[in-house]
Description:
Helix 4 (89-105) crosses helix 9 (190-203) and helix 14 (379-408) runs antiparallel to helix 15 (418-449). This protein has a four-stranded antiparallel beta sheet with strand order 1-4-9-8, with no helix packed on it. It has a four-stranded mixed beta sheet with strand order 2-3-10-7, with no helix packed on it. A three-stranded antiparallel beta sheet has the order 11-12-13. The model has no long low-confidence stretch (mean pLDDT 91). By secondary structure, it is an alpha+beta fold. The longest helix has 32 residues, at 418-449. 41% of the residues lie in helices and 15% in strands.
Amino acid sequence: MRSASSPTGILWTWMKLNNVIFTKVSISPMPDDKGLGVIISGGNTRPGDLLMMVPRDLVLSLENIWIFAKSDHHLREVLESTGEYSRTARGAILIFLLLQLTRNTQPGSKKVGATNPLSQYFNFLPSKIPLPTFWSTAERALLAGTSLEAALDAKLRSLDREFTSFRKSTASIDWCQDVWWGVETGILSFDDWKQVDALYRSRALDLPGTGHAMVPCIDMANHSSGESTSALYDTDANGNAILVLREGKTMDDGEEVTITYGDEKGACEMLFSYGFIEENMDSARVIYLDLEIPEDDPLKLVKNTVSNSAPGFRLFSQESSIAWEGPFVWLICVNEEDGLEFRLLQTNDGERELKVFWNDAEMKDVSKLDSILKLNPMWDIFRLRVITILQARVEAQLLLLASKDRHGNDIPHEQVDTRIRESASRLRCLEEEMLLQAYQEFEDQKMDLLESETVLEYLGPAKPDDKANLEDGFS
């Protein structure tokens, strides 16, 4: 089902009726078919000026949704049937949005849910959201070899599991069975679930004092990072959401007011959550790559069992260099001969529990293994092993990116939206540049470590001319 968006002119009436305050700003269509945006209208501004105020009871938050449920038995039934899921901001907001989507598209006069100001605001939200979860198979093929490929596959699987669980939780509610799930009468589909997820991901803000929430009107502001960000959102002393002009900023009539969706977010996350990559972004900023423990590691199964970290690592820009983080890789690089040990011990209640030890001392948190290894005389050796593992994974991703890029050129242009092709191509270029830089920096670090006295002593009397041949012993 699809909900048609209301004309923007009606939005002004809705704002007046619900005490939303606009000061020297208005909402207007943006050029180049970029949707709606907030612009200065009505005079010049000064730093710190209040641009918008949205009453606290209009903020679509976890708390307010449960308040709405007190007077909306349909909403309350669904919230209560989904248990802990509806006790999270994302879960409650998706359920609320889904009921509004149902109400707006449901045939007949008998509608699901009660009308409230936020259900009316739903009519102003876009009915089409250009996130990758809606891309066609041909368009998704353009992401092959990028970090977004795996992230998108994982997201679609997660949404499918979530939708299946939601259906199971609500199937016993009579009206849900009739309106949503009935063979002949049901109108809810997986695409609808993707739509409310996309609305949430692309519009939710981390509002101070409230947490993740959707804020009417403020969520119309487009993104710009760094010094280009012109306004900040916050909460005033009364709990109302406000938009104020940044310190040091003045704006003239007709200029666009922007907020930041997160300066630290990389190209992959921007395309994933918002459907675009910022025009002035000159670096991928962040890349997450998965890692697997080698098949010939005799402790592979038990390492995967005890690990409490994501099986991969994160590359990120840090000034002019590339840094990384990922506790999982340290677990890959050590084994029993180094001091790692696993013991199956019996607890006081008779159960058996797997424990991790390093040099006979129990490790309470495996994710802190690197802090223990730093105190070990073999620290440089462990570092060399890790750098070798990371470099090999980066090299594999570069090769995959190059091979898949050739395949993408074979996809007919008529099967792919032009903007999607451009976005995918830009992501590929940015990630390739960052991976090449990371590979070279790992190479430099590896060469430095091969000069370490600890490493030289570990290698023994062998003194090969080509140190690059030594790395195989550390991976």
